[in-house]
């Protein structure tokens, strides 16, 4: 597809532009959070507990231990985005490789990989993640492992289905006749033709992983205190919902906006790369 046409579609896509602007803003805020935070996010101050937004320089108020919510929100964004990016990159690499192998070689290899992926897909991601975390214990390393284990299957299925179509194309048959190796065909000819679908799924799954991580942290199975996470901040604030609602509203709004931004970005990319559009 022509680059000028892609740029034109991006600029005219409300979903893409909204998602891209907000997502870039969230990433920039996360990267520069140490410069933006005006308080230590882990320091307790019982004399300043449950201060409303705007009090004593606390932009979003303080929590039950007197910790600045704005600073904790910024640090929590770094953990959420870093975990999500790590999980998406690793699971996309694993799923893409297995999908290429499964779709291209077929036969017993395809059957084995697909049966394994279907086992994981048959169980809701959050339930499977809760079960594994309960067995392994709570740590960031275990959290990363769990999210990768429960995420690679979507990429595998997507790539495998695309490869089944692409491997019957004339350009693949021509390469085979000319003596090109299987690995060469998979990586240099078939793979470039499935990257569009991968980009769309990656942008959408970033928001999904952020939500799953927040859910696990809310349940006490993800990032542990005193390290801030949007999920455990919401969990802390639910007890004070009627007396200090800002404890829930701030991380809840940040989580909602971030997830929506990446979902909009994915929907916008799908519209931009849709060959049926004129």
Features:
13 helices; mainly alpha; 71% helix; single chain; 278 residues
Spatial gap, N to C terminus: 12 Å
Biggest beta-sheet profile: none
Helical element count? 13
Please identify the structural class as seen in this structure. mainly alpha
Order of helices and strands: HHHHHHHHHHHHH
Percent range of helical residues: over 70%
Question: Summed up, what is this model?
Answer:
This protein is mainly alpha-helical. Helix content is 71%, strand content 0%.
Structural features, described:
The chain has 13 helices and no strands. The longest helix has 37 residues, at 69-105. Helices cover 71% and strands 0% of the residues. It has helices at residues 3-12, 14-31, 33-36, 69-105, 107-121, 125-136, 140-149, 152-166, 170-177, 182-190, 195-218, 230-237, 246-272. It is mostly helical and 278 residues long.
Task: Show the helix and strand layout.
Elements: H1 3-12, H2 14-31, H3 33-36, H4 69-105, H5 107-121, H6 125-136, H7 140-149, H8 152-166, H9 170-177, H10 182-190, H11 195-218, H12 230-237, H13 246-272
Helix pairs in contact: 2-4, 2-13, 4-5, 4-7, 4-8, 4-11, 4-13, 5-8, 6-7, 9-10, 11-12, 11-13, 12-13
